[in-house]
Design goal:
The structure is a single chain. 59% of the residues lie in helices and 15% in strands. The protein has 310 residues and is of the alpha+beta class. Among the domains are: 51 residues, no CATH class; 78 residues, Beta Barrel (Thrombin, subunit H), CATH 2.40.10. Strand 1 and strand 2 form a beta hairpin. It is rod-shaped, with a radius of gyration of 73 Å. The chain starts with a helix and ends with a strand.
Length: 310
C-alpha cells in the first residue's frame, strides 16, 4: 500500500511537472501570442489611422474633384461666353472693316472733291487777280476820264463865259439895232449884212424881215467855237425821284427850252452826282432816265440839273 502512494506521488509529480510544463508552455505561448496580438493591434491601429488618413485624403480628393468639376463647368460656361464674345467681336470686326472701306471710299471722294475745290479756288484766285488787274486798269482809265472830265469842265466853264459874253454882246446889238430903218439895215457898223459880222450868211431881205417882225431886230444864233449854234444854258431843279424805275422829274419843260434827248448833269453844290437824259417833255416838266451816277450817290429833291453835252 505504501508503494501505491509512492507511485501515485510519482505519477502525480510527473503530472504536476507535465502540467507545469504545459502551463509554462501555455504561458510562454500566451506571452508570445499576446506580443503578437499587441503587435497586430498596433499594426491594426496604424492601419486604422492610415485608413482614416486615406479616407480624409479621399474626401479631400473628392472635394477637389467636385471643385475641379465645378471649375470645369465654369470654364465650359466661360468658354461658351468667350465663343459668343468671339462671334460678336468677329461681327464687329466685319462691320468695322466695312465701315473702314466706306470711310476710305468717302475719304477718296473727299480728296477728289478737295482737289476739285482747290483747282476751283486756284481758278477763282486767278480770275480775281485778273479782275483786280482789270480793276486797276479801269481805275487808271477812270482817273484819266475824271481828269479829262475836269479838263472838259474847265473848258466848258471857259466856253460858258464866252457864251455869256456873246449873249451880252447879242443883247447890246439887239438894243442898238432896235428901231433901225430899213435903209440902215444894209450893214451894221459899216459891215454889210451878207459879209462877216452878226448877220453873216443872211441876206438883206431876211434880215429886214427879222428886224421888223415885232419892232425889234432878231439875230441868228451866234456860232461859237466848234461851229455849233449857241444854246443858252438851262438849269432846272429835281422835283421828284423814282429810284425803283430809275427816272427823275425836272421842273422845267418845253416852254423853258427843254427837248427830248437832252442830257443834264445832276449836282449838289459843286459835287457831281450823275447824268440824266430827257425822254418825255411837257410844258412845265420833263421826265428823265438816269444814265449814270456817282458811287453811293443818292438823288434828292432840290438837286440842280444843268444842261450838259447831249
Amino acid at each position: 500500500m505504501s508503494r501505491k502512494p509512492a507511485k501515485l506521488r510519482a505519477s502525480a509529480g510527473i503530472v504536476h511537472v507535465l502540467l507545469l510544463s504545459f502551463c509554462l508552455g501555455l504561458f510562454l505561448a500566451g506571452a508570445t501570442g499576446m506580443g503578437f496580438l499587441i503587435s497586430q493591434r498596433e499594426n491594426a491601429d496604424r492601419l486604422q489611422a492610415h485608413l482614416v488618413q486615406q479616407e480624409r485624403s479621399v474626401q479631400q480628393l473628392e472635394m477637389r474633384s467636385r471643385g475641379l468639376k465645378q471649375s470645369y463647368r465654369n470654364l465650359q460656361t466661360d468658354e461658351l461666353a468667350w465663343r459668343q464674345r468671339l462671334v460678336q467681336l468677329k461681327d464687329q470686326i466685319a462691320r468695322a472693316e466695312l465701315t473702314y472701306t466706306q470711310i476710305r471710299e468717302k475719304l477718296f471722294e473727299n480728296q477728289t472733291y478737295a482737289d476739285q475745290v482747290e483747282a476751283t479756288q486756284q481758278r477763282v484766285a486767278e480770275e480775281i487777280e485778273s479782275m483786280r488787274e482789270q480793276k486797276r486798269v479801269h481805275l487808271t482809265k477812270a482817273e484819266q476820264i475824271i481828269e479829262e472830265n475836269k479838263e472838259l469842265e474847265r473848258k466848258m466853264i471857259g466856253l460858258r463865259n464866252k457864251v455869256s459874253l456873246a449873249g451880252r454882246d447879242y443883247k447890246m446889238l439887239s438894243k442898238e439895232v432896235k428901231g433901225a430903218t430899213p435903209q440902215s439895215l444894209g450893214g451894221y457898223g459899216g459891215v454889210p449884212l451878207t459879209q462877216d459880222g452878226p448877220f453873216a450868211n443872211t441876206d438883206s431881205s431876211e434880215a429886214i424881215a427879222m428886224a421888223y417882225a415885232d419892232g425889234s431886230y432878231e439875230l441868228k444864233p451866234v456860232v461859237v467855237g466848234d461851229g455849233r449854234p449857241y444854246r443858252p444854258p438851262i438849269e432846272s431843279a429835281v422835283m421828284k425821284v423814282n429810284l425803283a424805275h430809275q427816272f427823275i422829274v425836272l421842273d422845267k419843260g418845253s416852254t423853258d427850252g427843254v427837248q427830248e434827248g437832252m442830257v443834264f448833269d445832276i449836282k449838289r453844290g459843286t459835287e457831281w452826282l450823275g447824268r440824266i437824259k430827257t425822254v418825255m417833255v411837257e410844258q412845265g416838266v420833263a421826265a428823265c432816265d438816269i444814265l449814270s451816277s456817282k458811287e453811293d450817290a443818292v438823288f434828292r429833291i432840290g438837286d440842280v440839273a444843268v444842261l450838259g453835252d447831249s
